[in-house]
TrEMBL record:
Belongs to the peptidase M1 family. Its cofactor is Zn(2+). This is Aminopeptidase N. Keywords: Hydrolase, Metal-binding, Metalloprotease, Protease, Signal, Zinc. Residues 1-22 form the signal peptide. Residues 153-215 form the Aminopeptidase N-like N-terminal domain. It comes from Streptomyces xanthophaeus. InterPro entries: Aminopeptidase_N-like_N, Aminopeptidase_N-like_N_sf, Peptidase_M1, Peptidase_M1_aminopeptidases, Peptidase_M1_dom, Peptidase_M4/M1_CTD_sf. GO terms for biological process: proteolysis.
């Protein structure tokens, strides 16, 4: 039979090619980029440039219909393409506009294109899938009283959408979300060029980031929310998202953000992104989270009355500080987490010290007294132990918070406040919108100090026990290795 339709011929040839490739290739395997703490996280062979994510939300009991479009560039020739994805059903996949075979392997979605993609080539992946908010319990979508939010740290973005789920591969994001009329959708970045579009019983919303972002920092809020706009230092747009019913009650807290940003800018330089705000959700997470430009907070932090005002403000500064340390400058590997949490804790502690409520020296001395115990339980700050299976936030132990801020305190004691301040400003300037790790920090600190600090910092970073604190012999003297 002679085929007369070019489209039909192309479809049949593509299907035949897929069958041939599948017959030759071995079974798909879950791959990773070799992160010590998450060995199967991330995927080799390509660099993601952008994500375009579309979600259709109905309610918290129904999986969202979704389309993920990834634009990337190959770093090597690929006859298979691994994506991280584990909590949804895939309907179809395309690679560079041609249907691709897809299979699951562990927590990977493995695509087999009709023909291999060469090294250095454009790569456009389209996956039609569902995104299931139900019952994961280990991150990703977080149910709230009136909708959903996201909490993807450390390894849960791929429970929401197919991706290269490692902070070393940052990309631009576009979000397109359709939700029932009466709900408000907010995501990272700025609204799209067109306003929210009402069509019948639903409204469609679009947002895009102006700076690259790690997958763990993606945020989409869906709910009966009020969006409160304001202005921060040098005209910075502020955008807070709160339950609509609590808008007036939460307003005093929202008004503090501009001052917090000014305080941080005095210490490390200009805020690095297009806007900022807090997302206060009626949800129980057990943590607050520095999702890029829109930090996630539990409602109870502000409403239950058991936390003093100075403490709440210090926590707000902690998540704000992450916009520089962890978001703009992302960790090269998850073992570099101390650079995120140690710095955020440092500025949280400095802020509380400035309020006269909890002195920095007292907090650091108390951390020093507990440091050996923290290291025994969680490993040294720059080589933390992996989290136990099934414990999503098990990596976030005291050793990466106050135990790591203690390293910064020791560094300042060793080289002086002026050199330390230069390190902080240079760190967030030179690595803006990029990734950096522990070796990069030691190198930069040595340059600013005018001497090699490797021998000084390595015991603090990797030692099983805590070194002696410079300038504080009364804290207990040298520790035994």
């Amino acid at each position: 039979m002679q085929l007369t339709s070019p489209r039909l011929r192309a479809a049949l040839l593509a299907a035949a090619s897929l069958t041939l490739v599948a017959a030759v290739l071995p079974p798909p395997q879950a791959l990773g980029i070799g992160d010590r703490l998450f060995p199967e996280l991330g995927n080799p062979g390509y660099d993601v440039l952008s994500y375009d994510l579309s979600f259709a939300y109905k309610d918290n009991r129904t999986p969202l219909d979704a389309v993920t479009v990834i634009n990337a560039r190959t770093l090597q020739a690929l006859d298979r393409i691994n994506l991280d994805f584990s909590h949804g059903t895939v309907a179809s996949a395309e690679v560079n506009g041609v249907p691709a075979q897809f299979e699951s392997a562990g927590e990977d979605l493995v695509l087999t294109p009709a023909r291999p993609v060469g090294e250095g080539a454009p790569l456009r992946i389209t996956v039609r899938h569902t995104s299931d908010p139900r019952g994961s319990g280990d991150g990703g979508w977080v149910p709230t009283e009136d909708g959903l939010a996201m909490a993807n740290q450390a390894d849960a973005a791929h429970r929401v959408f197919p991706c290269n789920d490692h902070p070393a591969d940052k990309a631009l994001f576009t979000f397109r979300v359709t939700a029932p009329a009466g709900l408000t959708v907010v995501a990272n970045g700025v609204p799209g060029a067109l306003p929210a579009l009402r069509t019948g019983s639903t409204t469609s919303w679009t947002y895009r980031t102006l700076h690259p972002m790690a997958t763990e920092l993606a945020q989409v809020s869906i709910g009966r929310s009020a969006v409160v706009h304001g202005t921060g230092p040098h005209g910075l747009p502020l955008r807070d998202v709160v339950p609509a019913a609590d808008r007036q009650r939460l307003d005093p807290w929202l008004k503090k953000t501009a001052g917090h940003i000014a305080w941080m800018e005095e210490r490390v330089g200009r805020y690095p992104f297009e806007n900022y705000g807090v997302l206060i959700a009626r949800a129980t997470t057990g943590f607050e989270l520095e999702t890029q430009t829109l930090s996630l907070f539990e409602h109870s932090l502000f409403s239950d009355g058991s936390y003093p005002q100075w403490y709440v403000e210090a926590v707000m500064v902690h998540e704000l500080a992450h916009q520089w340390f962890g978001d703009s400058v992302s960790p090269r590997t998850w073992s570099d987490l101390w650079l995120n949490e140690g710095h955020a804790t440092w500025y949280e502690a400095l802020y509380a010290d400035g309020l006269g409520k909890y002195s920095l020296e007292r907090r650091m001395r108390e951390a020093y007294q507990r440091s050996d115990q923290w290291r025994a339980a969680g490993g040294p700050p720059a080589a933390p132990k992996a989290s136990p299976p099934g414990e999503k936030i098990g990596l976030f132990r005291p050793v990466v918070y106050d135990g790591s801020a203690l390293i910064l305190y020791a560094l300042r004691q060793e080289i002086g406040a002026a050199a330390f301040d230069r390190i902080e400003r240079r760190w967030v300037t030179e690595h803006k919108d990029s990734v950096a790790g522990t070796e990069d920090f030691v190198r930069l600190a040595s340059q600013e100090a005018g001497r090699d600090l490797t021998a000084f910092l390595n015991p603090w970073l990797y030692g099983k026990t805590t070194p002696a604190m410079p300038g504080h012999p009364e804290w207990g003297g040298p520790k035994k290795a």
